[in-house]
Amino acid sequence: MIALLLRDLKLAFRAGGGFGLGLAFFLIVTVLVPFSVGPQSSLLATIAPGVLWLGALLACLLSLDRLLALDWEDGSLDLLATAPLPLEAVVTIKALAHWITTGLPLVLAAPVLGVLLNMPVPGFFWLVASLLVGTPALSVIGTFGAALTVGLKRGGLLLSLLVLPLYVPTLIFGAEVARRGAVGMDIATPLLMLAGITAATVALLPFASAAVLRVNLR
Amino acid sequence: MTLSVTDLSIARGGVPVLQGLGFDLAPGQALVVRGPNGIGKTTLLRTIAGLQPPISGRIEGAEDCIAYAGHSDGIKPTLTVTENLTFWASVFGASGICPALDAFELNDLSDRHAGNLSAGQKRRLGLSRLLVTGRPIWVLDEPTVSLDVLAVALFADAVRAHLGRGGSALVATHIDLGLDADVLELGPYRAVPRAVDDFDGDFL
């Protein structure tokens, strides 16, 4: 399992691996927002948590179509399915590798981009905390979507359509934690809901992903 | 470990292709699967490898014993030859990759990125993966595609050595590998098209 994680990380960092793609997208979206809504710093401060969460979510979506499709194309997925590793472990590791190469950089970059949007200083901690708790769910749900669309030619758009509705609860509670944190309100309820969503998806979805992958490999 | 297949029926895309197929593959034995294009060789091998379920019939002795090599080699172009092989070796819990590199004469290429290899070299790398799986039953789908004469001989030697160690091999191929192998001709097992027996004339 460690070998698979290391291989996926190595592939992501090598040429054409797509590492940094999500991060660059996140940066561009965040930089473009002040251009489109105007330079009122109070307005930017209000919308900053929501914009940062939405940007992170879309950046996560960007790299999902490569998550399993590349392994399917070159036959690795067939070979992994016949390897001693259970397919549930394979999809879990794939989701973890996606989170390390996409989710984690977004979490680390978020406070820097928060400065660009004039985000109130007390909100920084809760923005990072909410992204740290919420982005694993985005990767796991995305892996499920990638498993559903593996084998489809140009399934990327379908993948987005399938996955975006499933991202809604994570987005609502994640952005709510960041917003409440920024204005100094109590964050316990949305943070617990967010953590609950992440825990449930991490616990359950790998089984669903492995099941649909078995069907798709036939 | 004997692989034993009894009364197997398989389908491709919902259409039955083979039915009533049965054979035994004992340790040390090689079985060459032959048949015209579209008869269901790949479907049969994928079914035995556990990648798809049969319609009916039993496959015994396949669990965790199969090393499958299909049309694609499962090679990552941005990893080197050594990295590719080491990955599969650690997935299958094998100790070293040197015997595999030696058997397919990949030592000179070991530090090259797999993306820079020729088609035949990639195939050799894909086949060398079989040696690091440590599994007794090799299920090979057209293993000699894009291999030159010398590489085919290397491959035949590798299969012979595998059989000598008590392994077995099920190979779909159109060329003569020079193996002392039995032939499984799939023609007689072609599925008869299902008669439509619940057709209601009143529908028209």
Automatic annotation (TrEMBL), chain A:
Keywords: Cell inner membrane, Cell membrane, Cytochrome c-type biogenesis, Membrane, Transmembrane, Transmembrane helix, Transport. It is found in: Cell inner membrane. The chain crosses the membrane at residues 12-37, 43-64, 96-117, 123-150, 157-175, 187-213. It is a multi-pass membrane protein. Its main location: membrane. PANTHER family: CYTOCHROME C BIOGENESIS B-RELATED (PTHR30070:SF1), HEME EXPORTER PROTEIN B (PTHR30070). Belongs to the CcmB/CycW/HelB family. Required for the export of heme to the periplasm for the biogenesis of c-type cytochromes. This is Heme exporter protein B. The gene is ccmB.
TrEMBL record, chain B:
The keyword Membrane applies. Keywords: Aminotransferase, ATP-binding, Cytochrome c-type biogenesis, Membrane, Nucleotide-binding, Transferase, Translocase, Transport. Gene3D superfamilies: P-loop containing nucleotide triphosphate hydrolases. It comes from the Bacteria. Pfam families: ABC_tran. One of its GO terms (molecular function) is transaminase activity. Transmembrane segments: none annotated. Residues 3-204 form the ABC transporter domain. InterPro entries: AAA+_ATPase (IPR003593), ABC_transporter-like_ATP-bd (IPR003439), ABC_transporter-like_CS (IPR017871), ABC_transptr_haem_export_CcmA (IPR005895), P-loop_NTPase (IPR027417). This is Heme ABC exporter ATP-binding protein CcmA. It comes from Sedimentitalea todarodis.
